[in-house]
Structure formats: C-alpha cells, structure tokens
Design goal:
By secondary structure, the protein is an alpha/beta fold. The chain folds into four domains: 121 residues, Rossmann fold (3-Layer(aba) Sandwich), CATH 3.40.50.2300; 162 residues, P-loop containing nucleotide triphosphate hydrolases (Rossmann fold, 3-Layer(aba) Sandwich), CATH 3.40.50.300; 79 residues, Helicase, Ruva Protein, domain 3, CATH 1.10.8.60; 50 residues. It has 21 helices and 14 strands. The strands form four sheets. Strands 2-1-3-4-5 form a five-stranded parallel beta sheet, with helices on both faces. The chain has a five-stranded parallel beta sheet with strand order 7-8-11-6-12. Helix 1 packs across helix 5, helix 13 packs across helix 15 and helix 20 packs across helix 21. It is globular and about 85 Å long. The structure holds adenosine-5'-triphosphate.
Length: 467
C-alpha cells in the first residue's frame, strides 16, 4: 500500500453491512466512505476524488449494483469492484463478472475475508498495466475465467491468510505449483522464501537429507554441511510436489516434524526449529494409497487440512483460448517476434481437443507453434503437425519410471522379495487390462496377451490367493 491510505467506497442499502464493513476496513488502514444507493455513489463521484476500490451490493432500491458497475466501469475501467450479494444465483454472479467485477463476495461473509479481498484487489490493480491492455502471462500469473477457476481464485484469497496446511490435487500439468506459489504470494509469508521440492524427482535415498539437511560427513558423499529445504523455507512456504511418492519411512519423519516443528539434520545434534507452511500436491488418489498401505493416514490428515482440487483442462475448455493467447503472447515477447494467432478452425480444434497433459501441454504446444508455424496465423494443419510431434505426456511419467520409484521405495523400506512381488503386480495389471478389454473372456484375453489359457488361469489363481 502507498503512504496515502487507499480510498474504499461501500455501496449498500443495508446500514449494518455498511457499518461493520467500514469498521473493519477502517481498522485495516483504509479511508472508507459509505453510500446507501448507487445514485449516491455516482453523485459523489462528480465531487470527490474517485475511490481506488469499491464494494457494492447487488439488490438495492433504485439502480442495482450491476447497473452501478456498468456505469462505473464506463467511467473508470481500471477500478476494482467487489460485488456483494446474498443472491448467490448464477445469473447475478455471471452478470457481475461480465460487468467487470473483480471479485464476488457472498453474504453473509467473514470480515477478515472481505479485508483480505480488499488488500488483494488493491494490490492487483496497482500492479495492472496502465493502458488496460492485457499483460503477457508471466510465470506466476494464474489465468482462468471459468466458474471452476473463479472458485479456486476465491479459495486462494481466503486460504492465503490462514496459516493452514493445504493439499492441492489435480492431474499433471493442471497448475498445482502455480497455485502453491499464488497461496504463498498472497500470504503474510510473501516476503519469505517459497521453496519447492518434487518428491518424485529426488532419489529416495537422498530425500531425507534434501528435506532436513545433513551435517558434514553424515554419510558417504556428504562432504559439506547441507541446509535442507525445511530450513531454507523458514518463515515461508515449502511446496512438496508428488507427495504420494514419498517413501513410508520418510512419511513418518515428516509427520513428526510437522507435529513438533523441529528436527535434527541427518547426523546432527542441534535441534532445528522452523516455522514453515507446508503446501503439498499430488496427482494420485491419496485415499487409495492409504488403503493400499502406501501412504500414512495420519500424515494425510495433517497435510489435508484444506484441499484444493484443480480441474483438468478438459473440464474448463472455455479457458483454452485465453490460455493459448497468453502463451503465444509470452512466446512472442521472448522471441521478439509478432504475436501469432489461431484462425477460426484451429481455435475450434483447440477447443475440441482432450488435453491429457493439461495446461502444460497447451503451453508447450503454443511455444512450439510460436517457434515453428510459418505464418502469423496458425491454421489447423500447423496445429495438427505440432500436436503429432508433441511428446506424449504419458511418456513423461512412464511406467518404467514408476516401477523404478516403487523399487527404490521398497528397497529403502527393507523389502527383500521385490522381484516376485513386482512380477505378480505386473501380471495383474496386464491381466486386468486384457480382461477388461475382452469383457471378461479369458481365452481371448490370453490370446491378446500372447499367453496360453492355462497360464492366464494360473496367474489369476495366484492373484486371488494373494489379494
Ligand atoms: N491457470 C494457469 N494459467 C497460466 N499458466 C498456467 C496455468 N496453469 C498451469 N499453467 C502453466 O502450466 C505449466 C504447468 O503448471 P504446474 O507446473 O503448476 O502444474 P502441476 O499441476 O504442478 O504439474 P505436475 O503435477 O506435473 O507437477 C506451468 O508452466 C504453468 O505456468
């Protein structure tokens, strides 16, 4: 906030709402004025310096809040407006967003939420570009205007202020890390570090020292003292991606550290105390891992104080053009080239596509097209050829990788019959897939797998005995 307190106006015919909201915003350091009608606010606009943020009710005698929104936006397109209403029906919410509302606050609301929202709206508008042009997507901007994303943004606003652990779920490439960063940037911890660690990317034997650090000589190869991610994140946020891949012994240790807020470095004697907010993410069903004995239920409960689900891109297709445009703009800025655009048919193809790799796939595609498409207009042929040369998202997380991770985890846990165990699971996966494909017909499933029928029967019997 600047040295001058920001001017916030509240328009609501309900006196008590005006009163409590004004008191809370005043306490937060804003200069607040209240109006009981849209008319009153519009008149004041002729005489007084314009507000920097406006809260308005929807249903009021005279002009309603949406009419006020239209008039204000015509005069002052940059003004952030927060629309408040007890009528949380789709029509008024959609109307408000179409009219350019920054946020929607449903009544009754929590005063702390309202104050946090005000701070965010003012910060966003201070950071917006002056000429109203959409800005190129930088790496930390979450783009989305579909209801699911709107809900998510609201949840981020609310949650950022609370010192709670958050679990973010969603398929790969849906933006989980970006959401974790947003939670951090919107929080009182924003000036402290945001530290990310992908559990699946670190060999399991190194995970413990990566997280908690180690003293010099703690184990072979530990030359110098190493400060772990927990310590690096002190005062800030630690983002643990792919938490479902964490080996069980480390889950136990993590649970203890989260409960106690202190730990020893590997090979260390000094008790380290940290204040860290943990945001974890996973693309897996953690409940299923718990049922399978591969994830600790108590750790899940500790991490899962609040859960944010990121919808796959195919469930919010309306965001695809917006995202694509932002990525093409970002790529053009980077390449110092004109911004390319999709023609109509290409845009339709984009909307129809399934996006198994979600936003990441779209982002990569746009960058490839920005670099390779011959003209400034991208047509369906350009698009199809870029889609067909894309590395499949499935290849990024191959089953060999998953198997390798599983093996390392079991070894770390002290298992010694890995091979038999892995073969049995391998057989089971193949058999189940083949049986599902043939509608349960064993002979056909055996033929499709290239196995004899007796072999299949035997393997099924083994599977049943064990499970
Ligand atoms: N809503 C969004 N707006 C703009 N960019 C986005 C959005 N969602 C995702 N991205 C971009 O897509 C890419 C993938 O996002 P991110 O790494 O956050 O996904 P993720 O869900 O954490 O993936 P994974 O599970 O594979 O780690 C990033 O480059 C990110 O900037």
């Amino acid at each position: 906030m600047s040295a001058e307190p920001a001017r916030v106006w509240i328009v609501d015919d309900d006196r008590s709402v005006r009163f409590v909201l004004a008191a809370a915003l005043g306490e937060a350091g804003y200069e607040v004025s209240g109006f009981d009608s849209a008319q009153g606010a519009l008149e004041a606009l002729q005489r007084r310096p314009a507000p920097q943020l406006l809260f308005t009710d929807v249903r009021m005698p005279g002009d309603d809040g949406l009419v006020l929104l239209d008039k204000l936006k015509a005069a002052q397109p940059q003004l952030p407006v927060i629309v408040m209403s007890a009528y949380t029906d789709i029509a008024s919410t959609a109307g408000a967003f179409r009219g350019g509302a920054h946020e929607f606050l449903s009544k009754p609301f929590d005063l702390d939420d309202a104050v946090a929202l005000a701070a965010r709206a003012l910060r966003d508008s201070a950071g917006a570009s002056g000429d109203g042009e959409p800005v190129a997507a930088d790496e930390d901007t979450l783009i989305g205007d579909t209801p699911a994303m709107r809900d998510l943004f609201r949840a981020i606003g609310r949650l950022a202020q609370a010192p709670l652990n958050v679990l973010i779920t969603g398929e790969t490439g849906t933006g989980k890390e970006l959401v974790a960063r947003a939670l951090h940037h919107e929080s009182p911890r924003a000036r402290r570090p945001f530290i990310a660690m992908n559990t699946a990317a670190v060999p399991s034997e190194l995970l413990e020292s990566e997280l908690f650090g180690h003293e010099a000589g703690a184990f072979t190869g530990a030359g110098k003292r190493h400060v772990g991610r927990f310590e690096q994140a002190d005062g800030g946020t630690l983002f643990l991606d792919e938490i479902g891949d964490m080996p069980l012994p480390l889950q136990t240790r993590l649970l203890r550290v989260l409960a106690e807020g202190e730990f020893f470095r590997v090979g260390g004697r000094e008790l380290i105390r940290v204040d860290v907010r943990v945001v974890a993410a996973t693309h897996q069903q953690l409940e299923a891992l718990v049922a399978d004995g591969r994830f600790r239920a108590d750790l899940l409960h500790r991490l899962d104080v609040v859960r944010l689900r990121l919808p796959p891109l195919r469930e919010r297709r309306a965001d695809v053009p917006r995202l694509a445009e932002a990525f093409l703009r970002a790529a053009a800025a980077k390449f110092q080239a004109p911004v390319k655009q999709f023609d109509r048919a290409a845009r339709e193809r984009l909307l129809a596509y399934g996006w198994p790799g979600n936003v990441r796939e779209l982002e990569n595609l746009c960058w490839r097209l920005a670099a390779l498409a011959p003209g400034d207009t991208i047509d369906v042929a350009d698009l199809e050829s870029a889609l067909s040369t894309a590395p499949s998202p499935a290849a990024e997380a191959s089953w060999e990788d998953a198997l390798g991770r599983w093996a390392r985890e079991r070894l770390a846990a002290g298992d010694s019959d890995l091979h038999a165990h892995a073969r049995e699971r391998f057989d089971r996966v193949l058999l189940e897939a083949a049986l599902a494909h043939t509608g349960g017909r064993r002979a056909e499933a055996a033929a499709r797998l290239g196995l004899g029928r007796n072999t299949v029967t035997r393997k099924l019997a083994v599977g049943r005995k064990r499970h």
